[in-house]
Amino acid sequence: MEIKEIESVVLTELYGKHGLDSLQVQNHVYGCFILMEDIAEGTVRLEEGKVVSDGYCFDLEGQFSEIGIRYGFIMDMSLEWNHYSVDYKTKWMEIFKELECSHNIERVELIQDALIAIVKANVGEEDAFLTSALEQGVLSREWQDKFIRLVRDKKKVIQLPKEEDKEEEDVKIVTNVGIARAQVEKLIQDKRVRGLRKTRRNRKGEIKRQISKTRRHVRV
């Protein structure tokens, strides 16, 4: 598959999206970066649409929407992405299957570079979550707060409480935000304590960008 094909579908998915919608796409794309590496490096195997390793099996074909919340830079159910196009899923599945056969790390790096350029050129500064994650290896406090605000605002829109229920609903929102903040902060703390894996490209030289630290290293 030509790299321009995955560039095109990612660009289409990003077009016109802002806030939480844009974040869902970016987190999913980042998750695909990490999954590409895992497959190419042989950390996991791809068998009949499933990602398999010792004691682990993930139905990639059936749970494609969960790649971001399993491998992305934010692991939160609010970022499960179900609104991708058929073309987007098809192109990524082609890439994963290709890498299962070739184990070509250089191919992974070329795809990452191309898609990072697409994201940087087409995502506004106010939504630049993936760029921040690449530069810092983890989301800063500022970007954590932006994520929490996006989730909180979405919940407010969905709930639309009646006036008499407003106080009770506000308490629920505050509680949920507190839980979300605690989860994000625990993830950051766990990563700082345990240490984080850089992608293979970054391990080859610090002159390259500080790209992902994977979720695999914070699993208990």
Annotation keywords:
220 residues; mainly alpha; three-stranded antiparallel β-sheet; 9 helices; 3 strands; globular
Describe the structure.
It is a single chain. This protein is mainly alpha-helical. It has a domain of 134 residues. Helix content is 61%, strand content 5%. The protein has a 3-stranded antiparallel sheet with strand order 1-2-3. β2 and β3 form a beta hairpin. The protein is globular and about 45 Å long. The C terminus is likely disordered.
What is the average per-residue confidence, as pLDDT, rounded to a whole number?
80
Beta-strand portion reads: under 5%
Note the overall shape. globular
The major β-sheet equals: 3 strands, antiparallel
The total beta strand count reads 3
Helix content estimate: 55-70%
**Which regions are unreliable across 5 or more consecutive residues at pLDDT < 50?**
184-199, 205-220
Outline of the structure:
With 220 residues, the protein is mainly α. It has 9 helices and 3 strands.
Give the secondary structure arrangement, pairings included.
Layout: H1 3-14, H2 19-41, E1 45-47, E2 50-53, E3 56-58, H3 67-71, H4 86-102, H5 105-122, H6 129-136, H7 141-159, H8 166-194, H9 200-203
Antiparallel strand pairs: 1-2, 2-3
Helix pairs in contact: 1-4, 1-5, 2-4, 2-5, 7-8
